[in-house]
């Protein structure tokens, strides 16, 4: 009977564009996990924690033995960028040793956690192999962000996306149409458009 080399704590999520990527969990759950609209990581088994380096390394080795060379890797769960830059560099180095043909590494990203990383650190990660960060903007309206307990503001998201661009990384931004309901639909649309125009993400969905 076939056994997948990585023992995931389900459910596991990834962006649609990562369908052909190896999903490597480096954390479990989401470091914020308080957004009222999101149930991705609310199950008890998805309580946030960083995985042990030796467990991540073992998963990489098992995946290399099972799949051979891998071109793309997505670092799960909800926000791998919460990890210290040093740890992320170690993980990417382990991946490149195991998969010599590795072309890109990607991750979800909370703006609040990029506030703790400099442009220079992000550039280091890009040079190591990180290519794409998926950012949940959701809305560019501060009132809506407060109501859904996003833990972010127009400015925190703007600052994160500017850092990503300055570091030479690719940004893929997610917006939730209708998040303001009928009452706040106008300000949701106008302020989200303003934030997107200000930051010019590479991809928008």
Name the features.
single chain; 205 residues; 38% helix; two-stranded antiparallel sheet; globular; 18% strand; 7 helices; six-stranded parallel sheet; alpha/beta; 8 strands; TIM Barrel
What is the global morphology?
Answer: globular
Query: The CATH topology, please?
Result: TIM Barrel
Provide the gyration radius in Å: 17 Å
Approximately what portion of the residues adopt beta-strand conformation? Answer: 15-25%
What is the element layout, followed by pairings?
Layout: E1 22-25, E2 27-28, E3 49-50, H1 53-67, E4 72-76, H2 85-98, E5 104-109, H3 111-114, H4 119-128, E6 130-138, H5 142-147, H6 154-166, E7 170-175, H7 185-199, E8 203-204
Parallel strand pairs: 1-4, 4-5, 5-6, 6-7, 7-8
Antiparallel strand pairs: 2-3
Helix pairs in contact: 1-2, 2-4, 6-7
InterPro entries: Aldolase_TIM, BchE-like, Elp3/MiaA/NifB-like_rSAM, rSAM, rSAM_sf
Domain Radical SAM core: 16-205
Keywords: Iron, Iron-sulfur, Metal-binding, S-adenosyl-L-methionine
Describe the structure.
Pfam families: Radical_SAM (PF04055). Residues 16-205 form the Radical SAM core domain. Keywords: Iron, Iron-sulfur, Metal-binding, S-adenosyl-L-methionine. This is Radical SAM protein. One of its GO terms (molecular function) is metal ion binding. This protein is α/β, with parallel strands linked by helices and 205 residues long. The protein has a single domain (16-204), classed as Aldolase class I (TIM Barrel, Alpha-Beta Barrel), CATH 3.20.20. The chain has helices at 53-67, 85-98, 111-114, 119-128, 142-147, 154-166, 185-199; strands at 22-25, 27-28, 49-50, 72-76, 104-109, 130-138, 170-175, 203-204. It has a 6-stranded parallel beta sheet. Helix 7 (185-199) links the parallel strand 7 and strand 8. Helix 2 (85-98) packs parallel to helix 4 (119-128). The protein is globular. The termini are far apart. The model has no long low-confidence stretch (mean pLDDT 96).
